[in-house]
Amino acid sequence: MPAPENKFKNLLSEGQLQIGLWLGLATANSAELCGFAGFDWLVVDGEHTPSDLPLITSQLQALAASPSEAVVRVPIGETWMIKQFLDAGAQTILVPMVEDAAQAAELVRAMRYPPAGVRGVGSALARASKYNTIPDYLTTANEQVCLLVQVESANAMKNIEAIAALDGVDGVFIGPSDLAADMGFLGKAGAPEVNAAVEDGIKRILAQGKPAGVLTGDLTLAQNYIDQGATFVAVGSDVGLLTKAAGDLAKKFKG
To answer: The domain 7-254: what is its CATH number?
Structure first.
């Protein structure tokens, strides 16, 4: 029996549009709720939320029965950290702040068992192998892992072709908020200059034959990026949805 099929990776390679949502509330219950809301993929965020390894594992467990595919964003692209999240059952990893092809190449190796990479062999203890009940896990896992790298600085945008061209990089994700800050537009991810840079990045990623992704809570911009060819697009967050709905409801009755 092989490692479980990574449906997100397969759909990504086929160029099918996948609409996602960011998970920042760091609870299994909210993750499970969002898993049945109709999104294709959900990012369990470990970079800007209170989610640590145990909390992310509980969210992966909560999402296992849902039709939504889980993507885990690690806090930073460290080999030891990627190993832990893969063993916890994440098959798709999103790594923030990737600056160049050399860094991306190290991440590719971190995702895979030898001889293709340096992932430590500890699957007998891990949720990823269903606690050693998947007999062919070690020999099939490399085919099912999916690496998404996040470019979010002006320097990274200069290197986008070299990053996207790497074998083992399954998709390139543009982070407009940090890109905006690096371009001098802190807190203004929708600025025309930032939008132009994102559009240009999408075209350059696609030219390398790789899927392009982006996150924006601006639904007009989200549709624009889809029209530009982005195929994995996150259109908001659980935090944003709850904040808006709670505020709107309070205003309705309090004026």
So the answer is: 3.20.20.60
Under a CB-based contact definition with an 8 Å cutoff, are residues 35 and 68 in contact?
yes
By C-alpha distance, which of 44, 105, 37 is closest to 70?
Answer: 44
pLDDT in tens, 63-121: 999 999 999 999 999 999 999 999 999 999 999 999 999 999 999 999 999 999 999 99
Active-site residue, from 4, 27, 28, 48? 48
Q: Rounded to two decimals, what is the model's pTM?
A: 0.96
Low-confidence ranges of the chain (pLDDT < 70): none
Give me the residue spans of the domains in the chain. Answer: 7-254
Select from 211, 142, 223, 221 the least CA-distant residue to 173.
211
Q: Would residue 78 show up in a list of annotated catalytic residues for this protein?
A: no
Sequence-ordered alpha helix ranges (H) in 125-227: 137-144, 154-158, 160-164, 176-182, 192-207, 219-227
